[in-house]
Amino acid sequence: MEAMFGLSELKQTRVYQEGKEEGKQEGKEEGKQEGRFEAKLEAVPKLLALGLSVEQIAQVLDLDIAQVQQALQQTPLNE
Questions:
Q1: How distant, in Å, are the alpha carbons of 37, 49, 50, 56 from that of 64?
Q2: Residue 67 structural domain
Q3: For 63, which DSSP code?
Q4: I want to staple 7 with a disulfide (CB 3.0 to 4.6 A). Which of 2, 43, 75, 79 is the partner?
Q5: Is the pTM higher than 0.90?
């Protein structure tokens, strides 16, 4: 079936290889951004415990107030 559609030849083309590499790079960047966002959300309860207000936390972490409030709602009470 692969031979019928010429997939092996397609995978050898420069266009395919460049597209594949570009996709990998985009995936890595999205992963990094998601990781940074998750780290910010993890910092929210710690900053609240230090006495910062929701508004201050949002400003410091460059988040929306709604994002900070949502992070606090998802934090277990024992933290």
A1: 12, 19, 19, 11
A2: 2-73
A3: -
A4: 2
A5: no
